[in-house]
Write a structure and sequence with these properties.
The chain is an all-alpha fold and about 325 residues long. It folds into two domains: about 80 residues, no CATH class; about 250 residues, no CATH class. It has 14 helices and no strands. Helix 1 packs antiparallel against helix 3, helix 9 packs antiparallel against helix 12 and helix 11 runs parallel beside helix 13. The longest helix is centred in the C-terminal third of the chain and has 34 residues. The chain is elongated. The chain starts with a helix and ends with a helix.
């Protein structure tokens, strides 16, 4: 076969492979926008094998150095991408948490927004209602519970650590981890009940948190309470919202699988939910650490506590908004 006919037959595939290599360094969204019909990742290994065969044929037939040089460069670039050693597992996990996890959260933005509304709206409404009528707290909690809340956040008890009954920082760190993860797992797992379970858990948590905050504010114990919760709330409340969104997306896939079989949609929802819960776990560990070793400090001025809280909320927001942009393979590395 003459060189011109050989190039005409295979040039389109070479160009597609070359473009695939070029898009490895750009964001996945941009690559999809530029090449809606480009080479799919699953077709790349077969394309690379054909490329090596084409190079061997070109060398055996004595085609021009320009053609064989181009094929040689493409083969070397493809080999560097397809056969490079995988990064260490700890690096892949760190890359997922920094980049892949926030990307996945953004991909489920609708469910995350719904979860935030289900948590924060009841929280705000019950807080306002208790300021208007403090007796409403008795409808949510038993009298002994209200007494315990007031005791834990008594502004007149200077010796008591905020929000702390007893136990060392390390012991409370373990307790907070167990408690937070239990709430988040219940919020996520209940989404399998056609999303109803996650809705109920999110609303119930919102009512409880708003009820505690509203009662303490109404009886004059708001200052110690806010100084305690402001530090770790950025991680904890955001993690609960994400766990709820993960549960909602499973329920929605059960109710509306689209063009796929229901079982396939559930498997995909479970896979995405598991990845989301992995990130939620890390966030809750961070929340427990802050809660045990920082939030409970009673002598720290309120301005310092609120300033640190503002920084943490800002960092969490920027991380979820910007994390992973321009790193198309962050999520794929975590799945591997």
């Amino acid at each position: 076969m003459k060189q011109d006919a050989f190039v005409e037959r295979h040039a389109a595939e070479w160009s597609a492979f070359e473009h695939w290599l070029d898009t490895r360094g750009r964001s996945a969204r941009r690559a999809r926008r530029e090449t809606p019909e480009g080479l799919r990742d699953e077709d790349v290994p077969a394309c690379y094998r054909r490329l090596t065969q084409h190079l061997a044929l070109a060398l055996r037939r004595g085609y021009s150095p320009q053609l064989t040089g181009r094929l040689q460069r493409l083969m070397q670039r493809g080999h560097a991408v397809l056969y490079r050693a995988p990064p260490p597992r700890w690096r892949r996990l760190a890359r997922f948490f920094i980049a892949g996890f926030p990307r996945l959260v953004r991909e489920e933005a609708g469910c995350m927004l719904a979860a935030a509304v289900l948590l924060y709206v009841p929280m705000l409404l019950v807080f306002i209602a208790i300021q208007w009528n403090p007796d409403l707290a008795s409808a949510l909690f038993r009298p002994e519970q209200l007494t315990e809340f007031e005791r834990m956040y008594d502004p007149a008890d200077a010796a008591r650590r905020l929000g702390r009954d007893n136990g060392t920082d390390v012991a409370m760190f373990g307790y907070y981890i167990l408690n937070n993860i239990t709430i988040a797992f219940r919020t996520f797992a209940s989404g399998a009940l056609a999303a109803v379970g996650s809705i109920v858990v999110l609303v119930a948590n919102g009512l409880v948190i708003g009820g505690v905050a509203g009662h303490l504010q109404a009886v004059g114990h708001g200052d110690p309470f806010w100084r305690f919760v402001c530090g770790h709330s950025a991680f904890e409340l955001t993690a609960v919202v994400i766990a709820g969104g993960a549960g909602l997306q499973i329920g929605l896939r059960l109710l509306a699988p689209g063009q796929r079989r229901r079982i396939d949609a559930l498997v995909e929802g479970g896979r995405r939910g598991a990845l989301l819960c992995a990130g939620v776990f890390v966030m809750l560990v961070l929340a427990a650490f802050v809660e045990a070793f920082w939030s409970s400090i009673g002598w720290m001025p309120a301005t310092v506590k609120y300033s640190v809280a503002a920084v943490l909320w800002t960092l969490v927001g920027l991380w979820l908004w910007r994390g992973g942009r321009g790193l198309p393979d962050a999520l794929d590395e975590a799945r591997a």
